[in-house]
Amino acid sequence: MILATLQTHAIPSTSTTELLVVAAFYFVVCAAIATWAARRTRTSEDFFVAGQGIGLWTMTLAAMAATLSGFIFIGGPGLLYQAGIGALFISLSASMTTPMSAWALARRMRLLREVRHVITVPDAVGARYRSPAAQGICAAAILVATITYVATNLLALGYVLNAVFGLSLPAGVLIGTAAVVAYSATGGILAGVYTDVFQGTIKAIASVLVFVAVLRAGHGLGGISRTILAHEPAFLGPWGHLTPLAALSFFLVFGLGTLGQPQVISKYYMLKDPRQLRWYPLLMTAVLLLTLLLFFSIGLGVKAAVLAGEMAPLVQRDDATPMFLLHRASPWLAGIVFSGIAAAIMGTVNAFLNIGAAAATHDLPMAFGVRMANELRIGRLATIAIAAAAAVLALLPGQLVAFLGIFAWGLFASTLVPSLAIGMNWRGATRVGAIASMAVGLIVTLLLETLGFLKIYQLPVGVMPSGLALVLSLLTFFVVSWLTRDQASTDLDGDVQLIMEA
Amino acid sequence: MSRGSRVASVPVAGLVLGALLVLLSYVSAWFGAPTWGTWSMISGSALCMSAAIAMGAANSHIRPARVALVAAFLLVVIVAGFGIPMYFPAVTVETPLVLGLPLPVAIEVYGVGLLPVVVLPILFALEFKSDGLDEAALVALKRRCAAARLS
């Protein structure tokens, strides 16, 4: 499944004058915003949690930019083109995940920041269970997942720069890395969220424009469906070409797993006026659905065009978006969409670099009782180090990079959903339960993915390692917490209890 | 048993049962993925999602009846949205389209993928309690928390 989220093949060259103009404009605006924000970054709180806070629109667009990576523009439409409607199950839960996350976490995380001055997600885990060990394990899982996830995104960025500017892949990866590091290391999350506003807007506009272009080219959604049904009806069956279990696993992991995404959860710390949380689910859900239109429309539209003989069959599924832009969109729209792809990747990389740097320089030392003297300077250095490690990984053979990237999403879900999202809402949770569930999530994900990659053992079709790891870590959390229920009250500080009840 | 424990106990039970049903459906894949395995996955996923949303809503001081309504709504939408399409005949070029999609897929996409949008975020906004989030209340909360830590 997660392989589908990775771009590990070259994108067809799309270089045109119009595209170069739009792409150059995009990078200049990003650089200007980053320079402005970098000058405002003076403390580690500015660097990790945007200092005095941000407004609702900024938070919404930043959360969206961090959530929807390049997968929505490249891997997603490609997967839909290949697997049919079953691939859409990845995004079906978008209608319900933001209210779910906001009810479970938003208020409590924001108040925790107010009272305890926490700045990272592992900070919150440590505070919830009075446990530096829990904070350390959480930080270690986040750091591993971050490096691998950033590596896969940098590789995708390298391919985009290769297609637009004609750079070689190593040069594309290195220049892309340098561009993201330039604003991530100087301006931290403050630069990130303000570039995210621009990048998120580009993504949403690109998505709506493509949706309209696809409908026009295919004579409406009905015309596209009729063409597909005439040639390949199973594609539009209830599960597409996937098994029911595989499609439903997408829905569960991308639905419930949203509660464990640190790049989104950490945004709750940043909202200046917590009363504005009232409108966050409505805004975020609307923006998410608008941006997902591209994923939905290109997958279906390109399939119909290929089946009708209007486009040549794709050599590889990830070509769906580039081939649509080349053959059925204006060069200016192609420029906006490619900028949207770069925006999606850069927004995600920035968010994860910041989270990884915080885990390395703030949470891991705190787990050992150490507090860094100059967290801002160390944080900047850690951002560069993580980006460098990820860039090196990105230039390893593609299959290995894909394998490394597999861990990220499953690790976040299986380590953070029980310990943080449920732990912040259930006073019966215990420190031992949280640590055991994080350990199970980490081990099961690594073990199953490694066995599968090395072809030692393949799970039956439809059983997703991250889905299995998620339910096993959930059950471990509840069983161990129940077995150690006598410690539940002593594992919870009075002030955290007040926050949970506030 | 405190109020906090009571409001959390039902969603916790839902999450445990939901996770067990998902696990059962994964186990069924080793035995040829029978139809009951699909139903186990549908009901397990629906229970997990409903229980997670109910847990957060219940702890946000929303009236129990509304929490139950939200959880029931989500449960029905997911179970019906994924369960009903299983019993339609295979789609063909003759299958009626609803808003541009074959009926079974339209139930999934518009039912599960869009219907909750007009209910959940709006209910969240209507039920959102901003008491305790203004500056004065935050100062008071910090004071109470400091006292709680010392005690």
Can you summarize this structure?
By secondary structure, chain A is mostly helical. Chain A has helices at residues 17-39, 44-49, 56-67, 75-83, 89-92, 94-116, 121-129, 132-165, 169-217, 220-231, 244-256, 262-265, 280-307, 320-328, 331-367, 375-394, 398-422, 431-453, 465-483, 494-501. Chain A is globular, with a radius of gyration of 22 Å.
Description:
The complex is a heterodimer of chains A (502) and B (151). Helix content of chain A is 73%, strand content 0%. With 502 residues, chain A is mostly helical. Chain A has a single domain, classed as Sodium/glucose cotransporter. In chain A, α8 runs antiparallel to α15 and α15 packs across α16. The longest helix of chain A has 49 residues. Chain B is mainly alpha-helical and 151 residues long. In chain B, β1 and β2 form a beta hairpin. In chain B, α1 runs antiparallel to α2, α2 runs antiparallel to α3 and α3 runs antiparallel to α4. At the A-B interface, α6, α10, α11, α13 and α19 of A face α1, α2, β2, α4 and α5 of B.
Count of runs of 4 or more consecutive helical residues of chain B: 6
How many angstroms does the end-to-end distance of chain A come to? 39 Å
Q: What is the percent of helical residues of chain B?
A: 55-70%
Helix run count of chain A? 20
**How many strand elements of chain B?**
2
Largest inter-chain contact set: A-B, 82 and 77 residues
Query: Quaternary state, please?
Result: heterodimer
Low-confidence stretches of chain B: none
Shape of chain B: elongated
How are helices and strands ordered from N to C of chain A? HHHHHHHHHHHHHHHHHHHH
The profile of the biggest β sheet of chain A is: none
Main CATH class of chain A = Mainly Alpha
Strand order of the largest sheet of chain B: 1-2
Order of helices and strands of chain B: HHHEEHHH
Judged by helices, strands and strand pairing, the structural class of chain B is mainly alpha
